[in-house]
């Protein structure tokens, strides 16, 4: 009796670790891959220190935010092709209304932008629910709308923000140099908050449920419409954060459509690399954080290896495509196993 009782906690502990590996094994592997790439990069360049860590962390912020937002929408069974355009909209709104303003006004503007874009994208989720039109069609249309509005607000690059706001994201009032602990903190705090919401709240579990099986979620009595709207609202808020981080990094606003389109594609790539299935219902936003940093690091690593920038772009595209194919194959195997 003593032996069986003493083995019980150990058995439970082992089962807990097994469940963790099954559920979040891909995300853990992506973090290990990131650690390996950092080690490789540190050995490729003459000196690796605080400056390099700061540069990687702060330059990753916009894509990390965008990938977290895209990840929550994909977990719920959707996809948002307008997140890059929302990034532009947030960026130009911030640059337009924060320029030459005191830090108190700048913070109020930032909070208003986050709230406004969350509501705006939540309405997009509502339109998708009511109309029954596929997410990809609705968000493709809204991407052009938000890009047009961004151009109307700021026809050409310009504007600015307060030095204190730049310090918040970069650790430097000029955006140059700084310390790495602030951008890392600004990266992890939203990621952990969204992760807790997704795994520890009813609405978060509903997102996984509707992404796994929408019909079953409805029969279980879940409010699937509310969950869909919540996923798009989170996506809008994170796109707003990406735009705010961009204006903090660059010190200006830029309404170019190509910037938003590239950001959207990179966010989808980070979602797949981070272990979130495009079919929905599987994955963790913590995985996409590491994946987004990896995508930012690919160019400097390839450059440090002496690869021509044009060839580096091709290699980066092939690597992303390969990872997406592996992710798709893994999702197919999971479906067959179930």
What is the secondary structure topology, with strand pairs?
Layout: H1 2-44, H2 50-75, H3 83-98, H4 103-131, H5 135-153, H6 163-170, H7 181-200, H8 202-212, H9 214-219, H10 224-250, H11 257-273, H12 285-304, H13 309-337
Q: How would you sum up this structure, described in words?
A:
The protein is mostly helical and 338 residues long. The protein has a single domain (48-337), classed as Orthogonal Bundle (ABC transporter involved in vitamin B12 uptake, BtuC). 80% of the residues lie in helices and 0% in strands. The protein has helices at residues 2-44, 50-75, 83-98, 103-131, 135-153, 163-170, 181-200, 202-212, 214-219, 224-250, 257-273, 285-304, 309-337. The longest helix is centred in the first third of the chain and has 43 residues, at 2-44. The two termini are 37 Å apart. 43% of the residues are buried.
């Amino acid at each position: 009796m003593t032996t069986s009782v003493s083995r019980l906690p150990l058995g439970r502990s082992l089962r807990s670790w097994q469940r963790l590996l099954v559920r979040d094994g891909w995300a853990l592997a992506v973090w290990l891959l990131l650690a390996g790439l950092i080690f490789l990069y540190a050995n490729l360049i003459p000196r690796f220190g605080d400056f390099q860590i700061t540069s990687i962390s702060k330059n990753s912020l916009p894509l990390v935010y965008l990938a977290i937002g895209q990840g929550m929408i994909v977990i719920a069974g959707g996809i948002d092709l307008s997140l890059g355009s929302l990034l532009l909209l947030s960026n130009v709104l911030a640059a337009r209304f924060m320029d030459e303003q005191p830090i108190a006004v700048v913070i109020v503007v930032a909070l208003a932008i986050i709230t406004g874009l969350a509501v705006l994208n939540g309405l997009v989720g509502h339109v998708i629910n009511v109309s029954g039109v596929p997410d990809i069609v609705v968000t493709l249309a809204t991407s052009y709308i938000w890009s047009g509005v961004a151009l109307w607000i700021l026809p050409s690059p310009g504007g600015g923000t307060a030095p204190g706001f730049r310090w918040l994201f970069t650790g430097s009032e000029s955006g140059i140099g700084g310390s790495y602990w602030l951008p890392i903190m600004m990266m992890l705090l939203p990621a952990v908050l969204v992760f807790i919401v997704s795994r520890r709240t009813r609405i978060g579990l509903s997102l996984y449920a509707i992404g796994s099986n929408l019909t079953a979620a409805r029969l279980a009595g879940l409010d699937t419409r509310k969950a869909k709207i919540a996923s798009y609202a989170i996506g809008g808020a994170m796109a707003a954060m990406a735009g705010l981080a961009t204006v903090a990094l660059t010190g200006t606003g830029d309404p170019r459509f190509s910037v938003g389109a590239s950001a959207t594609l990179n966010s989808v790539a980070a979602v797949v690399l981070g272990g979130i299935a495009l079919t929905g219902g599987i994955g963790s936003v913590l995985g996409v954080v590491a994946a987004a940093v990896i995508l930012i690091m690919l160019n400097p690593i390839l450059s440090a290896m002496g690869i021509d920038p044009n060839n580096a772009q091709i290699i980066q595209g092939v690597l992303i495509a390969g990872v997406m194919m592996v992710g798709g194959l893994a999702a197919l195997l999971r479906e067959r196993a179930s």
